[in-house]
Amino acid sequence: MEGCGGREVLEQILDRRIEPTDLRLALLEDITEKFSENRKIGQGGFGIVYQGILGTRKVAVKRIINSHAFDEKLFRRWC
After folding, report:
1. Cα separation, 71 vs 74, whole angstroms
2. What angle do CA 12, 14, 19 make, to 5 degrees?
3. pTM of this structure
4. Contact 24, 6 (CB under 8 A)
5. What was the pLDDT predicted at 52?
């Protein structure tokens, strides 16, 4: 899965070559084993956080569970 929102884009984000952007759901499902319960690492106000594996890298993937209370500006703040 390459191109817009695929593995290559995620690798570029992790290497800080490009700014964070939206990624394809299929990629996030792939690297989290379809948001498997055994990949769950936490839960917060916006949703559940899963461990994703991309090659040898581990990444955190946040899945929104309550879109009614969703504040996109707060969600998109980058650390």
Report:
1. 6
2. 65
3. 0.74
4. yes
5. 96
